[in-house]
Amino acid sequence: MTGLVRRKWNNASVRLKMLIAFIIPVVLILAVNIYMYISINTMIARVDEIYVVNVSLNELSEDLTFLQNSMREYLESKSTGALNDYYRAEQDYRNGIASLDLKNSGTAVYAMQENIIHQSENYLQLAQETITAKRGRNVEKYKASYEETVDMYSDLQACIYALNNKQFKKNTSDYSILLSSLRSMEMVTILILFFIGIVNVIVVFLVTKSMTLPLIDLSQAANEVAGGNFDVSVTATDGGDEISVVSRAFKKMLASIQDYISEIRDSVMRESMLKEHELVMENRMKEVQLRSLQAQINPHFLFNTLNAGEQLAMMEGADKTTEFIENMADFFRYNIKKIDNDASIAEEIALVDKYVYLLNVRFTGEIHYSKDIDEEVTEVRVPSMILQPIVENAVNYGIRDIDWEGHIDLKVYRQNSDVLLSIRDNGVGMSKDKIDRILSGEAVGEVSADHAASNGIGLGNVIERLQIFTGQRDVMGIFSEGKNKGTEFIIKVPMHV
Amino acid sequence: MIIGTLIMIAAAAFTGIVFHVITKTMQNVEQEEVVSFDKHYAFVTDNSESDLWQEVFEAAEEQAKEYNAYLEDLSVGLGRDYSPEELLRIAVNSKMDGIIYSGRADRKVIELINKAVDEGIGVVVLQNDVEMSKRQCYVGLNYYELGQMYALQIDKLIETDDLADVTIDVLVDGDMSEGASNLIIMAIEDHIREQMGDTGDGEEVAIPEMNVTRIYAEDIFSAEERIRNIFLEKDSLPDIMLCVNGVYTRCACQAVVDYNLVGQIQIIGYFANDTILDAVDKQVISSTVSVDTSEMGRSSIQALYEYNSMGYTNSYLPVGIEIVDQQAAHRMIEEKNDRTEEK
């Protein structure tokens, strides 16, 4: 039974709980009050009734006096008014006697009432006889009768007085008992109301506490969560009220968030590990690439050898050979020195100059080389070895096998915040398809396949290094108007990297 | 929550019960038990407050209850002291079923008693008979017997042979008829003559001088004053004082103590209440005559009931009397104390 009630209570909504918590005490207090009100009212009504008998006995006594007086007045004056008064008084007195009902007031009182009733009957009869005698002018008789009525009148008054007094004594004791009962009732009521009030406050406190405690718990948990601590415990009750539902939902939500967060953390960790790995790989590749490039160039031996050749040619007085070897030595020295670092545009141009000289020596001046340099930008830093591979490419694939005079034009100029380096040849040109493949890095193998004829650095490498250096994708443009219409390479580097 | 609610409900129920009990008690207070009765009798005496009449009334009331009758002391609560004849008038006008009367026997009383009897009301007269009336029954002492008892006591008290020197005062109630007082005197004289060997041959035998003093209790304290006057006014006080009334006995007793005459005046009393018994025990009063009050009360009701139910009854019912001397008084006091302790 209690379990069922408890279960029902747990499943009840907060509103219903509040309603019950409010209604039960109110109904009880109301019931006690109503009962008390009715009882006290009944008692007060009874208190009021107590002296009713005394009042009616007093009235009876007054009626009797009036009756006696009016009879006497009639006997004295024989006036019709007095006679009328007498009859009225007689009727009143008879009514008063008839309304006496003290059967329930105890034997003594009842006996006294009986005495009064019987004496009254005798008295009224005698009074009537007196009146009749007066009418009949029977002086002797009405005088004697009157004397007798006076005695009976005083006896009756004495008896009424005795009864009244007895009733009054009894009523007074009843009254004091009633009064003390009322007081004790009042006291009991106050105590009970006080007691119910206290229990009521405790019950309401407990009920509201049972309702607010989960809410406080919930809000604290929410604050903790807001502060970033997801490791909080929420005690979700198994009740069916709104708060329990919210508590359970919050607990569920918290669990989901915790799961989600750990999932995200895992994936972020995985991703960062992957990225780290990628970066390491990339670095390694660059390193390998660089080392392989350096290995390709392998200049030291050649450089020392060339120095020896240059000194020999100088000793022999062969000036052209000396110049040739010097240029070649400078060319390779630059390679050794600059391959790891960046360089100024001026240094790159000087290297191109030396390269073109060497080729012209080799090919007996077949290459017509011109340059147009904006001197203001020659100090701009660029990755080293970017111009020479392009010039080499222009020579090898542009103008080597042409029937007409080959030209290579180098132009360096500023465009907005960029510096543009243009290498233009008038060779065989380049198909659109090939340009695309070079720019996308697919044609690396093709354009620098001829290692024998180059210093080993392909266009792909140049583009890649430019991209890493500038941090931009768009670093080189290749333009050709068609077959035998030459090719223009334009390198774009920002003024300030 | 549940416990709290239960506590509150219990408290509310408790209030209900308390209220119910209080209300019930009050209802009980208000309404006495309704007692119906078949017969309604009046008790009319000259002084219903006196111990004698109190005892008689209690016994009569007890007997009345047995017959489902209600005995009412009419003098209670009337506002002033009503004379027995006024009370008798009230009783007659109240159409009682029966009246127990003790008081004067004057013309007015006789008329009232006759009127009552004519109206079918039974009248029983106690102690002093209203001989001339139509009363149904007289319940009282045999005064000759009473006289004999007194005579026996006087015998014990008289030490001298010369009885002529002895004076005896007999204090009787003014209401007592001449016949009754004469009977007492006669009984005493007869007894003394007998004792003295009066053969009835005409030879004069010396007998004590006996004075009958009638005391008319015209107002409430007159008896006491009159008895005091006897002590103050008389040149020579009697040797023996016979009090044929309980009140006079007490008054005389007090007077002998006050005037330091204990032992000089021998008092023979009437009735045996605590004061008188105590006085007998201490020999302030030499002896007293106790009347069987309960028999008096019972007999009067029985007579009325008999008259009501059968239309007639004995015209005289005697009441037992006995002498209470020091020994008997002592015993009675002890018995009374034992009864009180038992209670």
Explained architecture:
The complex is a heterodimer of chains A (497) and B (343). Chain A is of the alpha+beta class. Chain A has 14 helices and seven strands. In chain A, the strands form two sheets. Chain A has a five-stranded mixed beta sheet with strand order 2-4-5-7-6. In chain A, strands 1-3 form a two-stranded antiparallel sheet. In chain A, β6 and β7 form a beta hairpin. The longest helix of chain A is centred in the middle third of the chain and has 88 residues. Chain A is rod-shaped, with a radius of gyration of 68 Å. Chain B is globular and about 110 Å long. In chain B, β3, α4 and β4 form a beta-alpha-beta unit. Chain B has a six-stranded parallel beta sheet, with helices on both faces. In chain B, strands 7-6-8-9-10-12 form a six-stranded mixed beta sheet, sandwiched between helices. The termini of chain B are far apart. The mean pLDDT of chain B is 85. By secondary structure, chain B is an alpha/beta fold. In chain B, 43% of the residues are buried. Chain B is built from eleven helices and twelve strands.
Overall geometric form of chain A: rod-shaped
Total beta strand runs of chain A = 7
Low-confidence stretches of chain B: none
Tally of helical segments of chain A: 14
Measured as a percent range, the helix fraction of chain A is: over 70%
**Largest beta-sheet details of chain B:** 6 strands, parallel
Structural class of chain A: alpha+beta
| Element order of chain A: H for helix, E for strand | HHHHHHHHHEHEEHEEHHHEE
Number of DSSP E strands of chain B: 12
Rounded to the nearest angstrom, the distance between the terminal CA atoms of chain A is: 86 Å
Strand order, sheet with most strands of chain A:
2-4-5-7-6
Q: Work out the radius of gyration of chain B.
A: 26 Å
